[in-house]
Amino acid sequence: MMMLFLVIGSLCVWRFPDRDIKEIFDGDAYRTVFLRVSKESQAAIERRLGQKLDADETEFKFYPVSRKGKQIGVVSTHLSKGQYGAIEVVVALLVDSAGKAPRVKSVRIQRDREKARAALRSEKFLSQFVKKTSSDSLKVGVDLIPAAKGAEKSSQAVASAVRKLLVAYEELAGEGQ
Amino acid sequence: MNLLKFAVKNLAHRTARTSITVFSIGLAIAVLFTITSFNTGYENSLRGQIQKMGIHMMVVPIGCPYEAATLILKGGRIPSYLSDSLLGLVQKMEGIDIAAGVLIHGIVKPEEGRTDIYIGIDEQMLALKNWWQLEGAFLARENDVILGHDVSLIEVSKVGDQIYLPEYDRTFDVVGVLQPTGTEDDGFFYIRRATAQQVFKVGNKITGINIRLKDPSQASVLAKRLENLPGAEVITMSELLGTMLSLVGTVRTLILSVVIIIVAISTFGVLNTILMSVFERVREIGIMMATGAGRFHVFGLIWLESVILSLMGGALGLLMALFASRSIESVVKRFLPLAPRESVVSLRPGVFLFCLVFILLVGIIAGIYPAYFASRQNPAQALRTE
């Protein structure tokens, strides 16, 4: 059963939703859903990620995006620890009802203070995530080329955020579908 | 029989009256001791609280401080600064406890959802904000940064991490994180003032000087002196300081009123008891005088009784204060604003001595009239008294 909770709290704010849904999906609306992490789903997510969720990740916030009333994708955000401070990642997923796994449509960096910020925000680096699914390990240096030399940690922070949101969406939304 | 023994015997002869008087004096002295001790502690506590407020006044460049604050928040540069040579002058001024120069610089990037406010400080700021609790260390090196608590959460950073300032291509090492203060301090990046001056290219300028005074009641005097500094304007926390200092004055008045009442009660109590005793002993006094006692002896005897009675009451009162001061304090605290939670009554030798001298004076003053009255008796008439 899908657990939707309209509660206050988020991992990180989505700073420019109108701009993002227009540019990424050509969407015209979005709504907010909170998916609470049950003990079972937490165990499943952690097993698949190979790491523990953060203490405040007791629920995930997703934004289903629609065009003319029809859902065309989902957006979520994640606050990651970069090499020189926080990196806020916006991940846009394509989801459909045909049973295909959610896949990445676009990844954006909405806030960071990295030295290699231009490279990190570049199309060259971010386009590597497009069409990735939760079955991709998204390891920098293996599946992905780092944004720049010396930016491996921040590149991996972005990659880990993308994978976490993919897995979390599958587990939490799938739980209710 | 000497006068002392005679006086004691006379007092002991009227046990009930003497006991009641001694008890009432004792009660008055116990209250006097407690509230005098409390007043000292309360004043010290309030003054301590004022000191803990940290900043009593600020020296800023001439101009509207609100405009400066707005500019900072909008990412602008404050149009005018103070020279940090002024800081040295202020630090040397008499009456200044701590003067901490600060350089504030805001970097606002709304398109990135980022507002970084950097505060250039030195060790004086740490002394000024003595309630700060720091995880890690204070700024020692050029590239050290301390993060306010909220900043550390927003930047997911802790001691040992690095923070990059993209606009100025500068990397800082996080050496400390402030524990939550519940104030705007939680939202700032703190770097060494010299570093801030260099990074933000403002030369030897500062944005302001935060000041703590040795005696906050001297705020207006010092403010006038500080305003004479070139290009400086003074912002005082006068309203808050004034309120707290007026509290000290109000409590002092209250205590003085209570002391006056206690003086009156004690003096009239002793006077009444001794005078009653004299009235009852007119015939006895007549016999004393007829058998050779002079007026001076009679005066001395009655006066001594008054002093002994007072001292006995005083001794009992101080004993009672030892055991009941906490209860009396709790009653007093209910009527006082900003009363500290902890007990401020302490058994100070000075207050002890004050109470003893006080009651001795009460005994001396209260005994004058009865002693005079007794010494003026005519022996022949006194002997005829029933």
Helix content of chain B: 55-70%
Q: Please indicate the count of domains of chain B.
A: 2
Low-confidence stretches of chain B: none
**Rounded average pLDDT of chain A:** 88
Strand content of chain A: 25-35%
Number of domains of chain A: 1
Q: How much helicity do the residues of chain A have?
A: 25-40%
Q: Which sheet architecture does the biggest sheet of chain A show?
A: 6 strands, antiparallel
Secondary-structure element series of chain A: HEEHEEEEHHH
Largest interface, counted with CB-CB under 8 A? Answer: A-B, 18 and 14 residues
Structural class of chain B: alpha+beta
Helix/strand class of chain A: alpha+beta
Given the C-alpha coordinates, what overall shape of chain A results? globular
Note the total helix count of chain B: 13
Instruction: Give the percentage of residues in beta strands of chain B.
Output: 15-25%
Shape of chain B, please?
Answer: elongated
Count the strands of chain B?
12
Give, in order, the helices and strands of chain B: HHEHEHEEHEEHEEEHEEHEHHHHH
Roughly how many Å is the radius of gyration of chain A?
15 Å
| Number of β-strand runs of chain A | 6
How is this structure best described in words?
The complex is a heterodimer of chains A (177) and B (386). Chain A has helices at residues 17-25, 39-49, 117-120, 123-126, 152-176, and strands spanning 29-30, 33-36, 59-67, 70-81, 86-94, 103-111. By secondary structure, chain A is α+β, with helices and mostly antiparallel strands. Chain A has one domain (17-176). In chain A, strands 1, 2, 3, 4, 5 and 6 form a six-stranded antiparallel beta sheet that branches. With 386 residues, chain B is α+β, with helices and mostly antiparallel strands. Chain B folds into two domains: 3-50 and 244-384, no CATH class; 54-236, no CATH class. In chain B, strand 7 (162-165) and strand 8 (170-178) form a beta hairpin. In chain B, helix 9 runs parallel beside helix 12 and helix 11 (295-334) packs antiparallel against helix 12.
